[in-house]
Amino acid sequence: MALHLEIITPDKKIFEGDVESATFPGAKSPFQVLTNHAPIISSLTKGRVIVKTKGQTAEWMVNGGVVEVLDNNIILLAEEIIEKE
Asked: What's the CATH code of the domain at 67?
């Protein structure tokens, strides 16, 4: 079973799709989410969101936000996307 990720800002949906892993800039330290991760809600600080899909990696710089992980679904509510790298 794959992880399903949505990245949303107040303006628009930035990304939606299945991913192999996602790394977030947690308020205390970066953390990675893989399939079957325990449920979590975490605040984010300014930093990189790194998403790995089949053989590809995408990165976005976020300026804070909140991420929720539940039942292999990840929702990232970003305050703003600074840039896509």
From this structure: 2.60.15.10
Residue 23 CB-density burial (10 A; 0-12 exposed, 13-18 middle, 19+ buried): middle
Residue 19: other Cβ atoms inside 10 A: 20
**Structural domain count, the chain:** 1
CB 60 within 8 A of CB 49: yes
pLDDT digits (tens, 9 = 90+) for 16-66: 999 999 999 998 999 999 999 999 999 999 999 999 998 899 999 999 999
Q: Which of 66, 15, 74, 76 is nearest to 39 (CA)?
A: 74
- Strands 3-8 and 73-78, sheet pairing: parallel
Sole residue written with tokens 């303006």 = 11
